[in-house]
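FW: tagging you since you asked about this chain on Friday. Here's the raw sequence from the shared folder, copied in full. Didn't touch anything.
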Amino acid sequence: MRLNRILYLIATLLCIISCDYRTASKTRFERTTNIELSDSITVIEDIFQESGPDYGLSYKVSLTKNECLILIDEVQKSPDWEQEGSEFEFYKTIDGIIYNITFSSKECIITYYEDMV
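HL: got it, structure written out here
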């Protein structure tokens, strides 16, 4: 009886550990930049790759023209974003995680990369 409980506990823990409980890419973007994205964005790419303790995340979204104009206003006010022509770039390293984000105001596309090194 006791062995069955121990085996059940081990099996349950293995199931929990094997599930993907990572934070959604949209949430990661919003938390990193303090900019909220609407639910009407179009996700072009959302790739998460794990390699032991390191990982890489690539997240690319398309915005509507109205959302694009709002985002241009927000990034221009933020000291974290740098503008070069019609492109805006956000680059930071926090606790060993590299955040590299580009926003093309012409194409209304955000490209978000997050790498742990």
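FW: The CA atoms of residues 35 and 74 lie 8 Å apart.
HL: agreed, and The radius of gyration is 19 Å.
FW: great, closing this out.
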